[in-house]
Amino acid sequence: MAERRVELFIGPNHPGAAGNSCMHLWLEGDTIVHMEPEYGFLHRSFEKLMEHRNLMQNVSIIPRICVPEPDINEEVYARCIEAICGIEVPPRAKYIRTMVLELARIAATFLNLGFMCGGLGIYTVMNWAFADRDFILDLFEWLTGARVYHIYIVPGGVRRDLPEGFEDRVREVLDYIERRLVDYDRTFYHNSFFVFRTKGRFVVTEKLAKKYCLTGPAVRAMGKPVDMRKIYAYEAYPEIDFEVVTLKDGDAYSRMILKRMEIEQSIDIIRQVLDKMPKGKVFNKPINYKKWIPPAGQTYQVVESTNGEYGYYMRFDGKSGNPYRVHVRGPSYTTGTAMIQEMLKGARIEDVPIYLSSFGICPPEIDR
Length: 368
Hints:
three-stranded antiparallel β-sheet, 15 helices
Protein backbone atom coordinates (compact mmCIF):
# COMPACT_ATOMS: atom_id res chain seq x y z
CA MET A 1 0.00 0.00 0.00
CA ALA A 2 1.33 3.40 -0.97
CA GLU A 3 2.32 5.69 1.86
CA ARG A 4 0.08 8.64 2.57
CA ARG A 5 1.32 11.95 1.14
CA VAL A 6 1.80 14.61 3.80
CA GLU A 7 2.20 18.39 3.49
CA LEU A 8 4.79 20.03 5.71
CA PHE A 9 6.11 23.57 6.11
CA ILE A 10 9.70 24.24 7.18
CA GLY A 11 9.88 27.92 8.13
CA PRO A 12 9.66 30.82 8.31
CA ASN A 13 10.19 30.36 12.06
CA HIS A 14 11.77 26.91 11.90
CA PRO A 15 15.46 26.61 12.91
CA GLY A 16 16.10 24.49 9.82
CA ALA A 17 14.97 27.25 7.45
CA ALA A 18 17.34 29.75 5.87
CA GLY A 19 16.26 32.92 7.60
CA ASN A 20 12.72 34.18 7.06
CA SER A 21 11.68 31.77 4.33
CA CYS A 22 9.41 28.77 3.98
CA MET A 23 9.96 25.42 2.30
CA HIS A 24 6.57 23.94 1.39
CA LEU A 25 7.10 20.17 1.17
CA TRP A 26 5.02 17.23 0.01
CA LEU A 27 6.29 14.02 1.57
CA GLU A 28 5.81 10.31 1.22
CA GLY A 29 7.26 8.97 4.42
CA ASP A 30 10.48 10.95 4.87
CA THR A 31 11.04 11.42 1.13
CA ILE A 32 10.30 14.72 -0.63
CA VAL A 33 8.21 14.11 -3.73
CA HIS A 34 7.52 17.79 -4.45
CA MET A 35 8.45 21.14 -2.96
CA GLU A 36 7.78 24.83 -3.51
CA PRO A 37 9.86 27.56 -1.89
CA GLU A 38 7.92 30.48 -0.45
CA TYR A 39 9.57 33.84 0.16
CA GLY A 40 8.41 37.36 0.96
CA PHE A 41 8.41 37.14 4.75
CA LEU A 42 11.23 39.65 5.26
CA HIS A 43 12.31 42.64 3.12
CA ARG A 44 10.52 43.16 -0.18
CA SER A 45 10.65 45.41 -3.26
CA PHE A 46 13.97 47.09 -2.57
CA GLU A 47 14.68 47.55 -6.26
CA LYS A 48 11.51 49.59 -6.70
CA LEU A 49 12.08 51.50 -3.46
CA MET A 50 15.52 52.55 -4.72
CA GLU A 51 13.97 54.02 -7.85
CA HIS A 52 11.94 56.41 -5.67
CA ARG A 53 14.78 57.65 -3.46
CA ASN A 54 17.85 59.75 -4.14
CA LEU A 55 21.36 58.36 -4.21
CA MET A 56 22.25 58.93 -0.56
CA GLN A 57 18.85 57.88 0.82
CA ASN A 58 19.40 54.50 -0.80
CA VAL A 59 22.64 53.92 1.09
CA SER A 60 20.71 53.31 4.31
CA ILE A 61 18.34 50.66 2.90
CA ILE A 62 20.50 48.58 0.58
CA PRO A 63 22.42 46.64 3.29
CA ARG A 64 19.18 44.85 4.12
CA ILE A 65 19.12 43.09 0.74
CA CYS A 66 21.61 40.57 2.18
CA VAL A 67 21.51 40.63 5.96
CA PRO A 68 24.32 38.10 6.64
CA GLU A 69 26.73 40.05 4.39
CA PRO A 70 25.36 43.61 4.05
CA ASP A 71 28.58 45.33 2.97
CA ILE A 72 28.52 43.77 -0.51
CA ASN A 73 25.44 45.89 -1.30
CA GLU A 74 27.17 49.07 -0.20
CA GLU A 75 30.19 48.14 -2.34
CA VAL A 76 28.43 47.43 -5.63
CA TYR A 77 26.00 50.32 -5.17
CA ALA A 78 28.85 52.77 -4.55
CA ARG A 79 30.80 51.47 -7.54
CA CYS A 80 27.77 51.89 -9.80
CA ILE A 81 27.46 55.55 -8.81
CA GLU A 82 31.20 56.07 -9.16
CA ALA A 83 31.22 54.48 -12.63
CA ILE A 84 28.34 56.64 -13.88
CA CYS A 85 29.60 59.88 -12.34
CA GLY A 86 33.33 59.33 -12.90
CA ILE A 87 34.20 59.57 -9.19
CA GLU A 88 37.74 58.56 -8.25
CA VAL A 89 38.09 56.63 -4.99
CA PRO A 90 41.23 57.40 -2.91
CA PRO A 91 43.72 54.49 -2.69
CA ARG A 92 43.41 54.26 1.09
CA ALA A 93 39.62 53.96 0.80
CA LYS A 94 40.06 51.07 -1.66
CA TYR A 95 42.17 49.19 0.87
CA ILE A 96 39.73 49.88 3.69
CA ARG A 97 36.84 48.67 1.52
CA THR A 98 38.74 45.47 0.75
CA MET A 99 39.33 44.87 4.45
CA VAL A 100 35.65 45.46 5.24
CA LEU A 101 34.52 43.07 2.51
CA GLU A 102 36.83 40.30 3.73
CA LEU A 103 35.78 40.77 7.36
CA ALA A 104 32.18 40.52 6.17
CA ARG A 105 33.02 37.28 4.33
CA ILE A 106 34.41 35.73 7.51
CA ALA A 107 31.37 36.84 9.53
CA ALA A 108 28.95 35.51 6.90
CA THR A 109 30.82 32.19 6.72
CA PHE A 110 30.56 31.76 10.49
CA LEU A 111 26.82 32.46 10.30
CA ASN A 112 26.47 29.95 7.48
CA LEU A 113 28.45 27.39 9.49
CA GLY A 114 26.16 27.97 12.46
CA PHE A 115 23.08 27.35 10.31
CA MET A 116 24.58 24.11 8.98
CA CYS A 117 25.42 22.88 12.48
CA GLY A 118 21.95 23.82 13.71
CA GLY A 119 20.42 21.74 10.94
CA LEU A 120 22.68 18.80 11.75
CA GLY A 121 22.16 19.02 15.50
CA ILE A 122 25.82 19.86 16.26
CA TYR A 123 24.86 22.65 18.63
CA THR A 124 28.26 23.14 20.27
CA VAL A 125 29.81 24.28 16.98
CA MET A 126 26.71 26.33 16.16
CA ASN A 127 27.19 28.29 19.39
CA TRP A 128 30.91 28.62 18.74
CA ALA A 129 30.32 30.01 15.26
CA PHE A 130 27.77 32.59 16.38
CA ALA A 131 29.98 33.65 19.29
CA ASP A 132 33.13 33.96 17.16
CA ARG A 133 31.19 35.96 14.58
CA ASP A 134 30.54 38.49 17.32
CA PHE A 135 34.23 39.38 17.41
CA ILE A 136 33.89 40.55 13.80
CA LEU A 137 30.72 42.44 14.64
CA ASP A 138 32.57 44.16 17.50
CA LEU A 139 35.08 45.44 14.95
CA PHE A 140 32.29 46.73 12.72
CA GLU A 141 30.62 48.45 15.66
CA TRP A 142 33.88 50.20 16.51
CA LEU A 143 34.49 51.21 12.90
CA THR A 144 30.98 52.20 11.82
CA GLY A 145 28.84 52.52 14.95
CA ALA A 146 26.63 49.59 13.91
CA ARG A 147 26.96 45.83 14.23
CA VAL A 148 25.01 44.61 11.17
CA TYR A 149 23.92 47.43 8.82
CA HIS A 150 27.05 49.53 8.61
CA ILE A 151 26.27 52.18 5.96
CA TYR A 152 30.02 52.72 5.80
CA ILE A 153 30.97 52.32 2.12
CA VAL A 154 29.54 55.31 0.25
CA PRO A 155 30.01 56.77 -3.24
CA GLY A 156 33.44 58.41 -3.18
CA GLY A 157 35.07 56.19 -0.54
CA VAL A 158 34.17 55.40 3.06
CA ARG A 159 32.50 57.53 5.72
CA ARG A 160 35.45 57.84 8.08
CA ASP A 161 39.03 56.69 8.54
CA LEU A 162 40.09 53.82 10.78
CA PRO A 163 40.04 54.73 14.49
CA GLU A 164 43.28 54.67 16.44
CA GLY A 165 44.23 51.15 17.45
CA PHE A 166 41.77 49.53 15.04
CA GLU A 167 44.38 47.82 12.89
CA ASP A 168 46.03 46.21 15.92
CA ARG A 169 42.67 44.90 17.13
CA VAL A 170 41.91 43.46 13.68
CA ARG A 171 45.21 41.54 13.81
CA GLU A 172 44.35 40.22 17.27
CA VAL A 173 40.93 38.99 16.11
CA LEU A 174 42.45 37.34 13.04
CA ASP A 175 45.03 35.55 15.21
CA TYR A 176 42.24 34.32 17.49
CA ILE A 177 40.11 33.05 14.60
CA GLU A 178 43.12 31.30 13.07
CA ARG A 179 43.74 29.47 16.35
CA ARG A 180 40.06 28.58 16.68
CA LEU A 181 39.98 26.88 13.28
CA VAL A 182 41.81 23.94 14.84
CA ASP A 183 38.87 23.45 17.22
CA TYR A 184 36.40 23.64 14.34
CA ASP A 185 38.40 21.04 12.42
CA ARG A 186 38.44 18.59 15.33
CA THR A 187 34.81 19.08 16.31
CA PHE A 188 33.07 19.62 12.99
CA TYR A 189 35.03 19.39 9.75
CA HIS A 190 36.67 16.06 10.72
CA ASN A 191 33.47 14.83 12.38
CA SER A 192 32.39 11.56 10.74
CA PHE A 193 28.74 12.52 11.21
CA PHE A 194 29.21 15.72 9.20
CA VAL A 195 31.08 13.80 6.49
CA PHE A 196 28.39 11.09 6.34
CA ARG A 197 25.55 13.61 6.05
CA THR A 198 27.14 15.83 3.38
CA LYS A 199 29.48 13.64 1.31
CA GLY A 200 27.93 13.05 -2.11
CA ARG A 201 24.87 15.13 -1.31
CA PHE A 202 23.51 17.74 -3.75
CA VAL A 203 26.31 17.40 -6.27
CA VAL A 204 26.66 20.26 -8.77
CA THR A 205 27.57 19.07 -12.25
CA GLU A 206 28.81 21.25 -15.10
CA LYS A 207 25.44 20.85 -16.82
CA LEU A 208 23.61 21.99 -13.70
CA ALA A 209 25.98 24.92 -13.18
CA LYS A 210 25.34 26.19 -16.72
CA LYS A 211 21.60 25.62 -16.49
CA TYR A 212 21.26 27.74 -13.35
CA CYS A 213 24.16 30.18 -13.96
CA LEU A 214 25.93 29.21 -10.75
CA THR A 215 28.97 31.06 -9.41
CA GLY A 216 31.04 31.17 -6.24
CA PRO A 217 31.62 28.12 -4.00
CA ALA A 218 29.00 26.18 -5.98
CA VAL A 219 31.36 26.04 -9.00
CA ARG A 220 34.70 26.43 -7.22
CA ALA A 221 33.86 23.26 -5.28
CA MET A 222 33.61 21.42 -8.63
CA GLY A 223 36.96 22.71 -9.89
CA LYS A 224 36.06 25.94 -11.71
CA PRO A 225 38.23 28.91 -10.54
CA VAL A 226 35.44 31.49 -10.89
CA ASP A 227 36.03 34.43 -8.54
CA MET A 228 34.92 38.01 -9.23
CA ARG A 229 37.85 39.31 -7.17
CA LYS A 230 40.17 37.93 -9.87
CA ILE A 231 37.97 38.41 -12.93
CA TYR A 232 37.11 42.08 -12.30
CA ALA A 233 40.05 42.95 -9.99
CA TYR A 234 38.22 45.71 -8.11
CA GLU A 235 39.36 47.80 -5.14
CA ALA A 236 42.75 46.64 -3.73
CA TYR A 237 42.51 43.04 -4.97
CA PRO A 238 44.89 43.59 -7.94
CA GLU A 239 47.63 44.40 -5.42
CA ILE A 240 46.93 41.42 -3.17
CA ASP A 241 48.59 38.04 -3.66
CA PHE A 242 46.05 35.21 -3.46
CA GLU A 243 44.94 32.23 -5.53
CA VAL A 244 41.39 31.05 -6.15
CA VAL A 245 40.63 28.03 -3.94
CA THR A 246 39.03 25.07 -5.74
CA LEU A 247 38.01 21.48 -4.96
CA LYS A 248 36.65 18.85 -7.31
CA ASP A 249 33.67 16.84 -6.01
CA GLY A 250 31.03 19.58 -6.13
CA ASP A 251 28.96 18.18 -3.26
CA ALA A 252 27.71 19.75 -0.03
CA TYR A 253 30.79 18.50 1.82
CA SER A 254 33.14 20.16 -0.68
CA ARG A 255 31.26 23.45 -0.52
CA MET A 256 31.52 23.59 3.28
CA ILE A 257 35.21 22.60 3.26
CA LEU A 258 35.91 25.22 0.59
CA LYS A 259 34.27 27.92 2.69
CA ARG A 260 36.42 26.87 5.64
CA MET A 261 39.53 27.19 3.43
CA GLU A 262 38.37 30.63 2.33
CA ILE A 263 38.30 31.80 5.95
CA GLU A 264 42.07 31.28 5.98
CA GLN A 265 42.31 33.01 2.61
CA SER A 266 40.37 36.03 3.91
CA ILE A 267 42.63 36.21 6.96
CA ASP A 268 45.69 36.30 4.70
CA ILE A 269 44.13 38.94 2.44
CA ILE A 270 43.29 41.20 5.39
CA ARG A 271 46.82 40.91 6.75
CA GLN A 272 48.21 41.91 3.36
CA VAL A 273 45.80 44.85 3.24
CA LEU A 274 46.94 46.04 6.66
CA ASP A 275 50.60 45.68 5.70
CA LYS A 276 50.16 47.60 2.42
CA MET A 277 47.61 50.17 3.61
CA PRO A 278 48.56 53.57 2.09
CA LYS A 279 48.18 56.89 3.83
CA GLY A 280 45.90 59.68 2.65
CA LYS A 281 42.27 60.67 2.58
CA VAL A 282 39.42 58.16 2.51
CA PHE A 283 36.63 60.13 0.84
CA ASN A 284 36.18 62.20 -2.32
CA LYS A 285 32.93 63.97 -1.60
CA PRO A 286 30.74 64.47 -4.67
CA ILE A 287 28.60 67.58 -5.18
CA ASN A 288 25.70 68.56 -2.90
CA TYR A 289 23.71 65.37 -2.36
CA LYS A 290 20.33 67.10 -2.59
CA LYS A 291 21.21 68.56 -6.00
CA TRP A 292 23.05 65.52 -7.28
CA ILE A 293 21.75 64.43 -10.72
CA PRO A 294 23.99 61.79 -12.33
CA PRO A 295 24.42 61.86 -16.11
CA ALA A 296 22.38 59.49 -18.27
CA GLY A 297 23.92 56.05 -18.54
CA GLN A 298 23.89 52.49 -17.30
CA THR A 299 26.35 50.17 -15.61
CA TYR A 300 26.68 46.74 -14.04
CA GLN A 301 29.10 46.23 -11.17
CA VAL A 302 29.86 43.04 -9.25
CA VAL A 303 31.46 41.81 -6.06
CA GLU A 304 32.44 38.31 -4.97
CA SER A 305 30.11 37.57 -2.09
CA THR A 306 30.43 34.55 0.19
CA ASN A 307 28.04 32.70 -2.12
CA GLY A 308 29.18 33.94 -5.53
CA GLU A 309 28.64 36.76 -8.02
CA TYR A 310 26.61 39.60 -6.53
CA GLY A 311 25.86 42.46 -8.88
CA TYR A 312 23.84 45.63 -9.43
CA TYR A 313 22.54 46.89 -12.74
CA MET A 314 21.70 50.60 -12.54
CA ARG A 315 20.43 53.01 -15.14
CA PHE A 316 20.04 56.79 -14.92
CA ASP A 317 18.02 59.05 -17.23
CA GLY A 318 20.02 62.24 -16.54
CA LYS A 319 16.89 64.06 -15.40
CA SER A 320 16.43 62.89 -11.82
CA GLY A 321 18.54 62.31 -8.75
CA ASN A 322 16.88 58.90 -8.39
CA PRO A 323 18.00 55.81 -10.31
CA TYR A 324 15.70 55.17 -13.27
CA ARG A 325 16.08 51.40 -13.02
CA VAL A 326 17.77 49.07 -10.49
CA HIS A 327 18.21 45.31 -10.63
CA VAL A 328 20.05 43.21 -8.05
CA ARG A 329 21.66 39.93 -9.11
CA GLY A 330 22.17 37.70 -6.07
CA PRO A 331 23.45 34.10 -6.21
CA SER A 332 20.59 32.88 -4.00
CA TYR A 333 17.89 33.59 -6.59
CA THR A 334 18.39 30.55 -8.82
CA THR A 335 19.65 28.21 -6.09
CA GLY A 336 16.80 29.20 -3.78
CA THR A 337 13.88 29.22 -6.22
CA ALA A 338 14.37 26.99 -9.28
CA MET A 339 17.30 24.67 -8.58
CA ILE A 340 16.08 23.83 -5.10
CA GLN A 341 12.91 22.29 -6.52
CA GLU A 342 14.95 20.04 -8.78
CA MET A 343 17.59 19.01 -6.26
CA LEU A 344 15.31 18.40 -3.26
CA LYS A 345 12.98 16.11 -5.18
CA GLY A 346 13.77 12.62 -3.94
CA ALA A 347 15.81 13.88 -0.99
CA ARG A 348 14.86 13.23 2.62
CA ILE A 349 13.32 15.81 4.91
CA GLU A 350 16.43 16.02 7.10
CA ASP A 351 18.50 17.02 4.04
CA VAL A 352 16.69 20.35 3.57
CA PRO A 353 18.95 22.33 5.98
CA ILE A 354 22.02 20.77 4.31
CA TYR A 355 20.95 22.11 0.93
CA LEU A 356 20.08 25.56 2.29
CA SER A 357 23.31 25.95 4.25
CA SER A 358 25.74 24.46 1.74
CA PHE A 359 24.49 26.87 -0.93
CA GLY A 360 24.14 29.71 1.58
CA ILE A 361 20.59 30.68 0.62
CA CYS A 362 19.91 34.30 1.65
CA PRO A 363 16.11 34.98 1.50
CA PRO A 364 16.33 38.83 1.35
CA GLU A 365 18.25 38.50 -1.94
CA ILE A 366 15.10 36.86 -3.33
CA ASP A 367 12.61 39.14 -1.55
CA ARG A 368 14.27 42.22 -3.07
